[in-house]
Amino acid sequence: MIITLTPSKACGRIQAPPSKSMAHRLLICAGLSAGTSVISNVDLSEDILATLDCLRALGAKVTCKDSRVIISGIDPAELSHPASLPCRECGSTLRFMIPVCLLSGQEIRLTGSRTLFTRPLDIYQDICREQMLYFEKNENSLAVAGKLSAGQYVLPGNVSSQFVTGLLLALPLLEGDSTIRLLPPIESRPYIDMTLHALSLFGIKARTVPGVPFLIHVPGGQRYMPRDLKVEGDYSNAAFFEALNLLGGDVQVEGLDENSLQGDKIFRDCFARLREGFADVDLSDCPDLGPVLMAVAAALHGGRFTGTKRLKYKESDRGAAMKQELGRMNVRVDLSENEILVHPGIRRPQEILDGHNDHRIVMALAVLLSVTGGSLTGAEAVTKSLPDFFNIMSGLGIKISFEQSQNKQSRNRSDER
Questions:
Q1: pLDDT tens, residue by residue, 267-300
Q2: Are strands 228-230 and 279-282 parallel, antiparallel or unpaired?
Q3: pLDDT tens figures, 1-26
Q4: Which of 41, 189, 239, 263 could bridge to 231 as Cys pair (CB 3.0-4.6 Å)?
Q5: For residue 351, which of 325, 332, 322, 380 has the smallest C-alpha distance?
Q6: How far is it, in rounded angstroms, from Cα 151 to Cα 135?
Q7: What is the pLDDT averaged over residues 69-86?
């Protein structure tokens, strides 16, 4: 889908979209609970639908009614047959579900796009090799088999926190106690804290050990308890709408919890520094903010972003993607292994921008095009995390026209599933 934006200013009040990160965690916890849970304020994006499909494939009963998801959970250890889990393009779903699959002993195949399986899975591969578990990856699937063992897990702290979350979801269901030790430097700590909080909501005990460089103690023999919970607002997606305020807009985003553990709530501090002038920003704990912060820096005074090496392993190589598209807007971007330097000075692009099949690239570029005007292809990528993004933008007064391609219907979601 190609969209064309006419220069316009955003104005209005909106509710923050639901947190996709917390929704994944709550839904999986509900799917592992011995009973029926109701999770409300869920946006049925492609990523969330992937997690729900995987829970169904393991035997959970899932019903979606508007923004509520009703889940009757399962015990993966009771799975008596091989299964196939469709992860679509969602890295969170894939990495969260692998340890859960290793609770059953059955051979389970996790499927998805080729792009998904270019993301690193070495942590799990090493664990499976050490425990003599089956692990076979190809270009669009991964097969695992065998039962995960309780014990001591030592992981580098500078890899994706999704590996830690996956283990934290599964280890409480094993008979023995376990520990997870992260070797410094530790990145994305807020996401681990979010997981520990989600576990506690379902009655699972897992805690960091005081006085020990990051060590998590996970007692075994636990059971998830069903809960009725509401997903909190999402700082990560709210950032795209509040970015409009730095470009002349007047947008109020409501429904964000000031006490949230989300690491991306730091975006407001980052915006303030970028508004004042050229700023240095560390993305180690908030890599998902990379595209929108680069966009804001390009529109204002420029900025230097460090801790960027993990941007390569997202839906696209986000640093390279933003460099290419900002270049079409007359913005110079310098890339190095773990640093990105963005120079200021956006202009209307003379060619159609490319969304790189990446929801955050599309949303960041749309924010800039609301100022300069111009067109963007691949806009349907927003369905991955925020299907209503362009409806919300239009409701705020941003002038957008759509040209639907013949082979993609970006708004066709399976909400009834």
A1: 999 999 999 999 999 999 999 999 999 999 999 9
A2: unpaired
A3: 999 999 999 999 999 999 999 999 99
A4: 41
A5: 325
A6: 19
A7: 96
Q: Reply yes or no on whether 288 is catalytic.
A: yes
Backbone angles phi, psi at 355, to 5 degrees: -80, -5
Query: Tell me, what amino acid is at 244?
Result: L
Using pLDDT thresholds of 50, 70 and 90, give the confidence band for residue 368: very high
How far is it, in rounded angstroms, from Cα 27 to Cα 48?
A: 9
81-139 pLDDT, tens per residue?
999 999 999 999 999 999 999 999 999 999 999 999 999 999 999 999 999 999 999 99
Phi-psi region of 50 (alpha: psi -120 to 50; beta: other; left: phi over 0): alpha
How far apart CA 253 and CA 267 sit, in angstroms, is 13
pLDDT, tens only, 285-294: 999 999 999 9
CB 308 within 8 A of CB 338: yes
User: What is d(CA 283, CA 272) in angstroms, rounded to the nearest whole number?
Assistant: 16
Burial group, residue 387, by CB count within 10 angstroms (0-12, 13-18, 19+):
buried
Q: Which pTM does this prediction carry? A: 0.92
- Name the residue type at position 214: F
Which residue, among 119, 213, 220, 120, has the nearest Cα to 167 in the 3D structure?
A: 220
Determine how β-strand 108-111 pairs with β-strand 83-86: parallel
In the block, residue with structure tokens 């490319």:
354
Instruction: Give pLDDT, residue 415.
Output: 32
Contact status, residue 265 vs residue 294, Cβ threshold 8 Å: no
Task: Write down the catalytic residue from 43, 47, 288, 358.
Answer: 288
Banded pLDDT at 212 (limits 50, 70, 90): confident
Element (H, E) at 229: strand 228-230
Characterize 24-62 residue by residue with b for buried, 16 or more Cβ atoms within 10 angstroms of its Cβ, and e for exposed. bbbbbbbbbbeeebbbbbbbbbbbbbbbbbbbbbbbbeb
Q: What's residue 79's pLDDT?
A: 93
